[in-house]
């Protein structure tokens, strides 16, 4: 995943103080174009501050942030922001505007032709599973929380910005809707190939979404790595505990996707005793049932086989996950 | 109910005029208040400490009693609609400022953050996000202000700005409930209708809003413009004190002047206020002419010079004329015949019971006296002060508005009151005047007062007004007051009847 391309966003020794309080100390980080980068940490870790420095809602006290190699300070703030999508935890749809008007906010500022904007609105609504004819002229207050955040995501994407920021967008939603929207983000990322920086306090969400994950605590970036590296080789006890703390209350409910992300699933079969397949969104419970019949099973993703899981790997996962 | 309806039919032209004035004053004040308060509040949302200060200031302004505020404005900007509008604007500032400020300040910070993050400029954010969200709160502030303005604007009548308050003041003065009800109900209806209109505009589409507002503005400009163009002649403003008598007199003035000088039109401002108020208006040229009593000139208006006690009616007039000329450069034209004077009155039955004939007789029943008198009378040296001094009495009177005092006398709430000798109520309520054996009350004669300059430049006006010199007897005046106050005939009609009957008008128009 790490390439030699020029990073789209680069933090260089960035420091942020709020009055007496040190929020970020000496943060350096490079985010690659097309990457889905997740910042994860507890509250007060500085992850949201880091995110908001990218679109300059918060200005750093010291250090430089580069956008495509050019210092953010040199950009006109308003035109810079037109190129950075933003999805908020509070959703924050404008209550006096219809769904279509909300989505058109940035295309209108970019002076896109009305017809083209209307087309984009309809296309994107369809893409996130909302019927344009029914919902186009509704007010935000008429929508459910999940529907509202779908519109929030569409609003951020409407002008096809090269980079989109997500600030804990799903933390206020119920688990079922959250899972749906996580899948939606993965889908959209897959089709649009834009860069996403996603902030969450939920390690499960980070593991599910992130191409790479940055773990933050007390204003410091502790580790930046792929999900399986973080799971297998945490740099310190904090990261290890943070990861362990995310284990589902009932271990049987752990999704298979988590084992895929954290590196317990092999790309190629290890034995010849391969039975039926388990869906990537199924739980460990299903895997146990299948593995009681054969020693190895296939893991089926959306369209293709993601890999193979055997009894030994499952036992290893269980033994390495701390309570 | 029939009286109410008849009064309404009788007064509908005046009502329409008053309604128009009321609407003009109210809407002008509201527009000015919006133009000041809304931008100020928007600016203040970015300056919290200033906002707190401004909220305090507007709250304090709100607590000034409206009557006091109007009084304070008179020396600064004179009388008429200007001080009325200023006062109304001051009252309207708080609700509009407060609601605009709160409406914008209480917008969910995440919406502000979203607008910033999407790259909106401050102006775009204001018009696309902040104002639309705060609009219902702002509009409700404007509606509060409007209701406040329309209600308070009735007080504008006190300082000569006209409006529906004229009906209420006149109604109180003439003890005519129908007039009060008509004034009050019309004012309330106006507030309700305007408030509903604003509510409608809030939900209407932008195009409708612009159309409606344009129609209102064009209407205003059109009517005002028409009024301006349609009055090419010179306009003379004649005002009169509160009450039927001055009202009748100024209508006579108008008829006589307009007959004599075709280049002049006369605008009347009846029920314009009290003595000092009218005199100040004359000094500041807000009005041109008003009828005044000779005794009042000496007692209240000019600086005292020499002894004024025991002067005859003619001597009083001459002294008043000379003092006005010397001290204020004003012309005091020839007086009419009737002599109006203060009087102490009691009910006939009361006089009989205690055998009261003169004021001195009151000493015998001083423990039974319950007196109610006008504030002006109580404080004049030729009023209650003089009576108490000269007759050795110690009457303590409650201050009452003139017609309420008659009402109290009639009901027996008080048994001694003051009066003018020409008041129609003396006849109507069966009251008797107690003789002023010690001549405390000077004999008053009425005559028009105006500036020397106006008198010199308009001999035709002087000539016209002098036709009334020596006319109108005590009985005539009492009769005419009775016609207006009791029989509810309009002052204009009563005035014209008199002039025609006495050959002062060549031909009735």
From TrEMBL, chain A:
Domain ABC transporter, residue spans: 9-243
Transmembrane segments: none
Keyword Transport annotated: yes
EC number: 7.6.2.9
Keyword rRNA-binding found: no
GO molecular function: ABC-type quaternary ammonium compound transporting activity; ATP binding; ATP hydrolysis activity
Keywords linked to the UniProt accession: ATP-binding, Nucleotide-binding, Transport
Taxonomy, superkingdom: Bacteria
Stored InterPro entries: AAA+_ATPase, ABC_transporter-like_ATP-bd, ABC_transporter-like_CS, P-loop_NTPase
Family named by the database record: Belongs to the ABC transporter superfamily.
PANTHER family registered for this protein in UniProt: OSMOPROTECTANT IMPORT ATP-BINDING PROTEIN OSMV (PTHR43117:SF4)
Name of this protein: ABC-type quaternary amine transporter
Automatic annotation (TrEMBL), chain B:
Membrane topology category: Multi-pass membrane protein
TM annotation in the entry: 25-44, 64-94, 133-159, 179-201, 208-229
GO molecular function annotation: transmembrane transporter activity
Domain of life the protein comes from: Bacteria
Compartments it resides in: Cell membrane; Membrane
Residues covered by the ABC transmembrane type-1 domain: 19-198
Gene3D superfamilies recorded: MetI-like, Osmoprotection protein (prox), domain 2, Periplasmic binding protein-like II
GO biological process: glycine betaine transport
GO cellular component, one term: ATP-binding cassette (ABC) transporter complex
InterPro entries referenced in this protein's UniProt entry, alphabetically: ABC_Gly_betaine_transp_sub-bd, ABC_transp_perm/SBD, EgtUBC_SBD, MetI-like, MetI-like_sf
Assigned keywords, A-Z: Membrane, Transmembrane, Transmembrane helix, Transport
Pfam family, one: BPD_transp_1
Family: In the N-terminal section; belongs to the binding-protein-dependent transport system permease family. In the C-terminal section; belongs to the OsmX family.
Protein name listed in UniProt: Osmoprotectant transport system permease protein
Organism: Pediococcus ethanolidurans
């Amino acid at each position: 995943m790490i390439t030699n391309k020029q990073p789209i966003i680069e933090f260089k020794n960035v420091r942020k103080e709020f009055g007496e309080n040190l929020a970020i100390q000496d943060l350096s980080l490079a985010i690659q174009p097309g990457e889905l980068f997740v910042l994860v940490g507890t509250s007060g870790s500085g992850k949201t501050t880091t995110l908001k420095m990218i679109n300059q809602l918060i200005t750093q006290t010291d250090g430089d942030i580069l956008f495509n190699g050019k210092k953010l300070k040199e950009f006109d703030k308003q035109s810079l922001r037109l190129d950075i999508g933003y999805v908020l935890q509070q959703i924050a749809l404008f209550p006096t505007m219809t769904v279509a008007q909300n989505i058109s906010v940035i295309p209108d500022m970019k002076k896109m032709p009305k017809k083209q904007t209307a087309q984009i609105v309809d296309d994107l609504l369809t893409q996130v599973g909302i019927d344009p004819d029914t919902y186009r002229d509704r007010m935000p207050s008429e929508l459910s929380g999940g529907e509202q955040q779908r519109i929030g995501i569409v609003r951020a994407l409407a002008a096809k910005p090269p980079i989109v920021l997500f600030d804990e967008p799903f933390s206020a939603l119920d688990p079922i809707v959250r899972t749906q929207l996580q899948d939606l983000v993965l889908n959209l990322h897959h089709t649009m190939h834009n860069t996403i920086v996603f902030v969450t306090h939920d390690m499960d969400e980070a593991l599910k979404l992130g191409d790479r994950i940055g773990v933050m605590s007390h204003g410091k970036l502790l580790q930046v790595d792929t999900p399986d590296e973080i799971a297998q080789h945490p740099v310190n006890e904090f990261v290890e505990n943070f990861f362990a703390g995310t284990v589902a209350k009932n271990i049987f409910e752990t999704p298979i996707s988590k084992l895929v992300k954290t590196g317990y699933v092999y790309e190629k079969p290890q034995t010849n005793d391969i039975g039926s397949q388990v869906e990537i969104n199924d739980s460990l419970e299903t895997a146990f049932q299948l593995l009681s019949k054969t020693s190895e099973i296939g893991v089926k993703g959306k369209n293709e086989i993601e890999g193979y899981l055997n009894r030994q790997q499952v036992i290893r996962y269980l033994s390495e996950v701390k309570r | 109910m029939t009286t109410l309806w008849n009064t309404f039919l009788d007064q509908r032209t005046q009502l329409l005029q008053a309604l128009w004035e009321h609407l003009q004053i109210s809407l002008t004040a509201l527009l000015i208040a919006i133009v000041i308060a809304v931008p100020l509040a928007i600016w203040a949302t970015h300056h919290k400490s200033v906002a707190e200060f401004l909220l305090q200031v507007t709250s304090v302004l709100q607590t000034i009693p409206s009557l006091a505020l109007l009084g304070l404005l008179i020396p600064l900007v004179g009388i008429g609609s200007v001080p009325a509008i200023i006062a109304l604007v001051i009252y309207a500032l708080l609700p509009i400022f407060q609601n605009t400020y709160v409406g914008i300040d209480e917008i969910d910070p995440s919406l502000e953050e979203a607008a910033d993050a999407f790259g909106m400029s401050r102006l775009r954010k204001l018009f696309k996000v902040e104002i639309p969200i705060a609009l219902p709160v702002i509009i409700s502030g404007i509606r509060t202000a409007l209701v406040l303005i329309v209600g308070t604007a009735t007080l504008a009548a006190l300082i000569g700005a006209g409006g529906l308050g004229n009906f209420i003041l006149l109604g109180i003065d003439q003890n005519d409930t129908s007039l009060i009800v008509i004034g009050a109900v019309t004012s309330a209806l106006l507030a309700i209708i305007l408030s509903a209109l604003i509510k409608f505009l809030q939900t209407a589409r932008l195009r409708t809003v612009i159309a409606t507002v344009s129609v209102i503005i064009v209407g205003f400009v059109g009517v005002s413009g028409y009024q301006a163009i349609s009055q090419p002649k010179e306009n003379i403003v004649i005002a009169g004190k509160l009450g039927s008598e001055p009202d009748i007199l100024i209508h006579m003035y108008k008829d006589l002047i307009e007959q004599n000088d075709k280049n002049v039109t006369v605008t009347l401002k009846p029920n314009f206020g009290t003595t000092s108020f009218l005199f100040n208006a004359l000094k500041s040229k807000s009005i041109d002419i008003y009828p005044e009593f000779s005794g009042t000139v000496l007692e209240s208006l000019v600086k005292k010079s020499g002894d004024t006690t025991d002067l005859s009616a003619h001597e009083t007039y001459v002294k008043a004329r000379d003092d006005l000329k010397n001290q204020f450069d004003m012309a005091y034209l020839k007086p009419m015949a009737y002599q109006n004077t203060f009087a102490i009155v009691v009910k006939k039955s009361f006089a009989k019971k205690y055998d009261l004939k003169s004021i001195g007789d009151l000493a015998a029943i001083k423990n039974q006296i319950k007196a109610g008198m006008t504030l002006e009378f109580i404080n004049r040296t030729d009023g209650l002060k003089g009576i108490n001094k000269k007759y050795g009495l110690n009457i303590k009177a409650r201050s009452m508005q003139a017609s309420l005092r008659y009402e109290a006398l009639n009901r027996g709430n008080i048994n001694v009151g003051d009066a003018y000798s020409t008041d129609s109520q003396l006849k109507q309520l069966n009251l008797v005047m107690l003789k002023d054996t010690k001549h405390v009350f000077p004999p008053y004669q009425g005559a028009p007062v105006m500036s020397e300059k106006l008198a010199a430049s308009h001999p035709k006006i002087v000539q016209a007004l002098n036709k009334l010199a020596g006319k109108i007897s005590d009985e005539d005046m009492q009769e005419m007051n009775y016609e207006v106050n009791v029989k509810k005939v309009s002052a204009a009609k009563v005035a014209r009847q008199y002039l025609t009957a006495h050959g002062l008008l060549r031909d009735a128009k």
